[in-house]
Amino acid sequence: MSGDKMKTEFFQYTNIGTRPENQDDEAVRAYEHDAFSAVIADGLGGHKGGREAANIAVKHLMGFWDGKNLPGDERILKAMEAANSEIAAVRESESQMKSTAVALYAAGNRAKWAHIGDSRLYHFYENRLIHFTKDHSVAQIQVQLGEITRDQIPTFPDRSRVLRVLGDSECRPDYSGEIVLEKGLHAFLLCTDGLWERLSDDEIALDYNKSPTPKDWVENLVIRAEKKNFSERDNNTAIAVFAEV
């Protein structure tokens, strides 16, 4: 791990929306040796185990790392496969319990993340959005085909159809690779679709640039999202991290 020191500040938020139960889960951990991890999961399955699936995802993705050296892709895959196996072992039917997940790991001046499903990560450096995850969804395929733009995903008719999740027969996350965190301020936002579906990338960037703390950022995003007046709102969860390298 690099000897560069990193100062971090976190803020966690979750809201039930208009649903009868909050099936999102999230966790953040700071380590003694200048490192942190953050995980968000969005359980799928209605009242039939979505919450439990998200809990299982967060447990495995937070529990395997000691905060020292960044985990390799294979190690993250093993954690996701362990979550996959536990979900399959405890559910009553194949459609009952599934979960999206996005996990961020950072140590010194290095970071990496992995995701499966349509929970997202955004990475800003010195006020610019430089990395973001791409959903594993039918809507994202339409973006790749040039049929719609990324900002049109929230209004796409089949937007909620997710193609990869924990709880499938095969676990297929995507990985960022190891990212060097250059000197300066880095900001990360992890969030479930209940939040990002009401916000464009430009709006997320705008609120970041006017927010002095992670708490301010998330609160500004929530205020903006609530003004959209959606008749129904999904569970919505976010973790914001400011990391000064």
Provide a descriptive summary of the structure in words.
- It is a single chain.
- With 245 residues, this protein is of the alpha+beta class.
- The protein is globular.
- Strand 6 and strand 7 form a beta hairpin.
- Strands 2, 3, 4, 5, 8 and 9 form a six-stranded antiparallel sheet that branches.
- It has a single domain (7-244), classed as Phosphatase 2c, domain 1.
- The protein contains six helices and eleven strands.
- 27% of the residues lie in helices and 31% in strands.
- 44% of the residues are buried.
- Helix 1 packs antiparallel against helix 2 and helix 5 crosses helix 6.
- It has helices at residues 50-63, 73-90, 138-144, 193-196, 201-209, 214-226; strands spanning 7-15, 24-31, 35-44, 98-107, 110-116, 120-125, 128-132, 174-175, 179-180, 185-191, 236-244.
